[in-house]
Each structure stands twice: as structure tokens, then as C-alpha cells.
């Protein structure tokens, strides 16, 4: 995209200064940037002291064999001790760690003292099942407290966990069990979703019939829904309540090396088999603890934190489990969907628990925009003081709506860029420091080095675009791809020498602030111009009639690719309105320039998304190019594609 169109996009830019009281009492001030700049490794060594080490590290970074990093390598610590026990020892055993809200409305508040007992019992149960340090445990659970307890129990005994999102199929589960060579699977009879129990155990039973899963000895099953017909394999399946409840509440945590593996988390990416992203102990916990403290300004005595992600994604690992709990936070854990039983459910939860910090994804914010401003307006959201966004670029309209309708035009919004691979937040405003710009993640955090380069690895000047790279190792970086060092090198470290290639397009504005533009595979080539799908989507949703948009480049004989847009209209807008498509095309032309006008615009009822809220452009491209659909197994709702295909006129008829 030309600089001119970027300038157009930024024209309407507004800035928001941090609220004065927040800035005055902020956990982190502008000084942190200076300090980290002067001595980056010294800065991280200091952040490592946030944790309780059994053996304090004397080394910070070992980069003698790049890109295989070791952080704090001679230190030893226990992650579960840091997330649970030390808070009890410090006199905070009565503080609530987790306010659990089940979808049907059942609730459970768990203090740090109770969490310590639950995690200890679960650790003892895993030991009884023969789990040893280093053994992998697969976790396939709904969003219930046992998911957090199971993760911490694994961490406590040094058994790396591999979470598989509960919405994944038996096939996806089997592939991940096989790749990690898991020995135990922790699951549930089911969970609640959209007002109904939804079974999980059958997928585990099916997965374990697949070749490569033979090493699974035990399946530990939490009773959540109480469904009656749970198939049972004697000698392999064990009820959680039968084995965990009878264990001792005491378990002495053992300290592990800072580089001991903590977890594997699979990320699918666009092609190939899923990559098992490996994270280790000391560096990971240092960065998630520091970033949670800095980016959300958490005050553990008074804040109530809520990250709406699923524990099956990295956001859940880092900002439901390890970041908040290492900081002694009180947090909300909600099992269900935002619109069950009504579209105000989230806001009801914010009001009920007095949530002060909310961390969610742009896709959810846009859904709430679509449902209408009057819904959040019915609830008291005045406790909120910091709002966060993660997962994809947030279009300025959604950012401004979020601040205005959820944050009463008062709270800072922090747009946090990071990845499964980075482990923790990398680029984000700081709520007490940064003057925020809607739609931009803005600046690398203290101690993090990020920039934008062109095809030849040259840093681009302010005001231009290219590829986002990270130029220095960071504590919570992935250590490798499980079992495949070569793929680790090829995927992240071969595109640019000595630089981590994130796979995202980005731009620096005139102030040097970073704007993320989506995955580079999402950039379209139209008559010799690179146009980012995100920018066109953002221009479309800035039109008052559009609630959501997904844009793809479809092969085109004249222009290499033609821009094809799928739009969800706001409530009350007539999709059959003859002038609508032309009106939207003209609007994009005005915002970004005529070259960015979509060739086709199709109003649709829903968009195909993964369960983590990412638009599956690959499928939309299949539709736009009249191909048979590719793999739809990671789609939330595959009927969406039937609806979209039914709406599509025969090939070419629109041109
Ligand atoms: C990809 C990583 C980070 C946890 C959730 C996703 C996109 C993430 C932002 C943001 C623009 C973002 C990037 C990144 N992304 N956050 N604030 N602005 N894009 O983890 O599944 O590993 O996906 O999500 O494209 O590379 P993930």
C-alpha cells in the first residue's frame, strides 16, 4: 500500500492521553524505556527478581548458539510455587484467585489457599498415575477451574503440558497427542456451550484409537456436565473426583532448571502440520509476569482482572494462568459464550465481580458493536479502568467503540501485539505512559526490540511499511519447535539474518509508531500494488452500514489479484439495496485510493472464523475463486460456508 493511502488512513487519527490518576500511580513509567535501553539484559535480570527462585540466576542470556536461547540458565524455580504457594506464605491465602462463572450460572470462588490445596492434590494424583518429570500431559478441557489446576499441577511436577482447545476435533487432538508423545490426557465429560452440555470425552476416546497415541496410559476425566452415557475404558479412564479428592493436600514443589520445558502449544498457521511451540520455565514466567504487571497496571490488592480468552490458546496460558497468578491477581474465569443466555452476559459479569481490567479480542468487540450500544449501556461498567485487545489488528472504529461504550470514554485501551511463539506481550502501549492511537500497537515494550524492514532486511524509514521483525532475543521466546529444530530455523530465522521473522506486515507512522497489518500471506497484489487486507477491511467497517468485513485477493487475469470483500451489515441495513455495493466501493476509494476499491462486495450473514476469532481467509479465497473448499475442521461453524456459497452468484456474473 502506498504511503499516501496510509496517510489517508491516519488522517482521522485521534489520540488519547493516559488518565492523570492512572499515570500518577502507574506500575511502570517512561523511565523503564530508558533503563532498558541503557542495559537491556540488566533490565531483564531485574524483572526476573519479581519471581521467587530457589537458586537465583547469575546468568541472564546465553546466546552463544543462536537462535537457541537460554535465559537465566543457572537459576532454579518452581512455577506453581510462584503462582500459588508464595502468595499463601505472604499472608494472602484468603485472597480470591479465581471467580469462576459457569455458563449455566453456577459459580465458585477459589482463594489462593484453596488453589494451593487443589493443585497439590492434583499433582499427587498425577504422580500416582505414574507421571514423571519431563512426561508430557495433554489437557483437553472446557473453561473450568480444573483446567487451571491441571496446568499448575503439571508445572508443579515438571511435566510439560500440551493444551488442546476443547473445540478441536478428535483428529486434531490425536495429531497433537502423537506429536508430543503424551502419556496422560486430562479431559471432562463435557462443558457448557450456548446453553447446552457439549461432550468432550467421545473425542478423546476416538483420538485414542488413532495410530501414534498408544503411549497414553491414563485418561483423567473431570465430571462437569454429569452427562449419563460416558463411555469408559477400564484400566485407562479415571474420574478426577475419585483419584484427586482422596490425595494429600500437601505436596512439596521441586525446583527445576530455568530452561526446563513448561509447555508445548500447537499453532496451526496457514500450511503444514501444526507446530509444537516449546516454552520453558524461568524466562517465560519472568516476561509474562512483568508484562501483565506493566501493560495492565495490575494492583493485586484491588484489581479484578478478566481475560476472556480460552485457556487452550496462548493468551489463556500467559494471561489467565501464568501472568496473573504469578502476580497474585484476583481474576474471573468464564466458561461460556458472550451471548448466552443473552447478549449482555459479559457486561453482567463485569458488573457482578467489579472487573477493573478487561482483556479481549477485536472479533468479540465487533460482535458487541453489531448487537448494539444499548446492551452494555444497561450495566454498571464503572469499575473498569484498563481495556486490552489482542489477536488481530483492531480497526480504529472498534477501538473507539470499545473505549467509548465499554470504557466510558475514560479508560486507556492497550492494543497488545504478540504471538504463541513470543510467549508474552511484545508491542503495546503502557496505560500510564503512552498517548494512544486507535488501531496501533505503537511501541515495543521496555526490553523488547522490534522494527519494520523491507525485502532486503533494511529498516524502513518512518512513514513506510514492510515486515515486522524482532531484533534481539527476549525471555519468553519459543525455544524451538518440539522435535524439529530445523523447522524452527526455517520458519522464523531464515527470512532475515539474525532477526526473528514474525510473518506479519507492519508500518511505521511518522512518529515511528508501529501499525500491524495482518499476516504477510494476507497481503494482496493488485496491478502491482501491495494492499493489505486489514486496511481494506478497516476502511469498510468505517462505513456506518458495515459491522464486519473480510477481504481476500482472488486471482484475476487483468490485475493479478482482485479485491473481494465479504461484509456483515449493521442491524436494519437492507442487503438488497441496489446502491449499497457502489456506495461501499466509493467509500473505500475515498479512504484508501481508487486502487483499493473492492472489485466485488458480498453482503453475508456470518464470516468463517476459527475458534480463536481469526477469519479463515483461505476459505473465502476458495469461494472467491470458485474452488472446492479446503479443510474446514478448525472452523467454528461450518454451515457458515454453505450460506456464503449459496449467496455467491455464478462465477464472473458480477463483473
Ligand atoms: C498472530 C499471532 C497473541 C495471542 C493471540 C494470538 C496477530 C495478535 C495482534 C495485535 C495485530 C495481532 C498477528 C500475530 N495478532 N495480536 N494486537 N495486532 N495483530 O496468537 O494465534 O499465535 O497469533 O495474531 O498476526 O502474528 P497466535
TrEMBL record:
The catalysed reaction is: acetate + ATP + CoA = acetyl-CoA + AMP + diphosphate
Give the Enzyme Commission number.
Answer: 6.2.1.1
**Where are the N6-acetyllysine modifications?**
614
Write out the residues that bind ATP. Answer: 391-393, 415-420, 504, 519
Q: What class of enzyme is it?
A: ligase
According to its UniProt record, how is this protein modified after translation? Acetylated. Deacetylation by the SIR2-homolog deacetylase activates the enzyme.
Its required cofactor(s), as named, are:
Mg(2+)
The record ties this protein, via Pfam families, to: ACAS_N, AMP-binding, AMP-binding_C
> What keywords would UniProt list here?
Acetylation, ATP-binding, Ligase, Magnesium, Metal-binding, Nucleotide-binding
Indicate which residues the UniProt annotation says bind CoA.
193-196, 315, 527
State whether keyword Ligase applies: yes
Q: Which residues bind Mg(2+)?
A: 541, 543, 546
Q: Where is the Acetyl-coenzyme A synthetase N-terminal domain?
A: 30-83
Which SUPFAM superfamilies does the protein's record reference?
Acetyl-CoA synthetase-like (SSF56801)
Q: Which residue numbers delimit the AMP-binding enzyme C-terminal domain?
A: 535-614
Report the residue ranges that make up the AMP-dependent synthetase/ligase domain in this protein: 90-474
Q: What does this protein do?
A: Catalyzes the conversion of acetate into acetyl-CoA (AcCoA), an essential intermediate at the junction of anabolic and catabolic pathways. AcsA undergoes a two-step reaction. In the first half reaction, AcsA combines acetate with ATP to form acetyl-adenylate (AcAMP) intermediate. In the second half reaction, it can then transfer the acetyl group from AcAMP to the sulfhydryl group of CoA, forming the product AcCoA.
Under HAMAP family, the record lists: Ac_CoA_synth (MF_01123)
Q: Tell me its family.
A: Belongs to the ATP-dependent AMP-binding enzyme family.
Query: What is the official name of this protein in its record?
Result: Acetyl-coenzyme A synthetase
